[in-house]
Amino acid sequence: MDGNSSAKTKVFVTGASGKTGALVVQQLLQLPDKFEVAVAVRSDKAHKYMVDLGVTPDNIFHLDLSGSDESRAALQAALQGCQALVICTAAVPEVALLSTLLGGLWFWAGSTLAGLLGRHQQPPEGAAGGSRAADPFVPVAKWKAGQTPEKVDYQGQVAQIEAAKASSSVQHVVLISSAGGCDPHHFLNHIGKDAGGGDILNWKRKAEQHLIASGLPYTILHPNHLVDPPAGRHVVALAVDDALQQPHWRQRLKMPRADLAALAVQCLLLKDAGGANRSIDCAARPAAAGEAPTTTTEQFKQLLQQMPDSCSYSINDRTKPDAEWACTPAGQN
Ligand SMILES: NC(=O)c1ccc[n+]([C@@H]2O[C@H](COP(=O)([O-])OP(=O)(O)OC[C@H]3O[C@@H](n4cnc5c(N)ncnc54)[C@H](OP(=O)(O)O)[C@@H]3O)[C@@H](O)[C@H]2O)c1
């Protein structure tokens, strides 16, 4: 569908109760002439949340999307009549607050001291383990049973892609993934590694590659660190291959979830105008005085057309049988 089409696109949003998913739902509902919305949720609370946002109860489906054949078949049935799928599901680590707080204080004191002394300690060449000095502190975390990144971010997303393919009505899949996937050693891959999970970005990247290989029209979005400032105040930047991941995390641009949701919705509108069959990194900075924030379809169209590249999966190719997983074996983080 393009911005001028009169036909409505029925969009199915998974992870609809999540912070980004709910914003995607809200923004789609704000365009009732262009979109009809269906969603997947896991709880009665999330069901009520969707009703309160304005999703019609007939379009709310209860599904646990961690890769079972049963849930894939149920999603496939739910997708009948939908032309697009927006995947916003993600494994969510349970962070151990006290150890993370103490570890974070220790890390902050060390990095502040290193900053005062004008030096940042780097691991020895080729060394495995630990978060590097340029990375933030890795929180102590575990996963709910059956909800690891391998289950949710890989098997669950593969099941969604396969359900979309089998539905025969879905013509576009937008996958909200993450920046940092070019680096198999990225610090985020260490989160929850000791707890039998981890490698979150590596599993996400493997799912992205499955989507590309599926033959379905796709858009993969790699946001930088997500934040929640008020909507519509930022200038969005696009890039590929983690070019927006500055070496030190403190210098990195962040990505407002509202702008990420807007980019996803605009990619649906601009499917035939630069919005599809590509994998893109995104981040945003506050608009300067007198500068227009990125909000309109025309602005997003220009942005997509001015940066026509797509991320290369020859970098950190997760389909290779010998693909290197995160740098530290479990127990050594
Ligand atoms: N946080 C960051 O800084 C950051 C940076 C870059 C990229 N990202 C990525 O951006 C995306 C959006 O992040 P977010 O923070 O907005 O998401 P979020 O709030 O953590 O939402 C995750 C959603 O996934 C759903 N979910 C998880 N496991 C599921 C399962 N087994 N079956 C069905 N649904 C399941 C959750 O449902 P429930 O509500 O039922 O739990 C929730 O709706 C994620 O892929 C995230 O990894 C995050």
TrEMBL record:
PANTHER family: NITROGEN METABOLIC REGULATION PROTEIN NMR-RELATED, OS05G0110300 PROTEIN. Pfam families: NAD_binding_10. SUPFAM superfamilies: NAD(P)-binding Rossmann-fold domains. This is NAD(P)-binding domain-containing protein. The lineage of its organism: Eukaryota, Viridiplantae, Chlorophyta, core chlorophytes, Chlorophyceae. Residues 150-268 form the NAD(P)-binding domain. It comes from the Eukaryota. It comes from Tetradesmus obliquus (Green alga).
